[in-house]
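Action item from last week, closing it out:
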Amino acid sequence: MAEQTEKAFLRQPKVFLSSKKSAKGKKPGKGGNRFWKSIGLGFKTSREAIEVKLVLAQVEGIVLEICFNGLPCAMKPFAHGREKLLTSTYIDKKCPFAGTVSIRGRILAGTCHSAKMMRTIIVRRNYLHYVKKYQRHVPPAVLNGYEKRHSNIPAHTSPCFRVKEGDHVIIGQCRPLSKTIRFNVLKVIPAGSSGGGGKKAFVAM
């Protein structure tokens, strides 16, 4: 059953919940299974979109089942050191992995500038703009005829990602999801990790 966090009943549009057949060994979305897909383009489907890894933690002397990615789950006592894999339960029709949105068009990389909105982040992209006039004399603020610029792009983020300010993200273009959102988060590289690429961009002031 999906997480019911809204007034309306939430469910995946491609899953028949009243199926009487067993869901074992079937394709995603068949027999009551959770629907998920591969977006291609070399991006792996997020594991949190398919299943949730549960680990055990000791809180105030009681061993409880705690969800690895922060999703709520049953708080039942279990033996110490036990791990479980359960089906993910979040519902997001705009998720590129478990929703109805397809990724096509531009693939951009940037830094999370703000993560204060619900399921939406602001991605800041720094770039250099060439100014022909500055070719005659180069001011200190201009690098060989180029000036520093940046753009802020709002992007939808699926509940399977945990994005914080400063994280490096890769976003892909999709259909318009709202008045201003036309991109979806495909990959998150935490700040400080070595997977952010070797290029060093200028630091925003």
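Closing note: Residues 140 and 147 are 10 Å apart (CA to CA).
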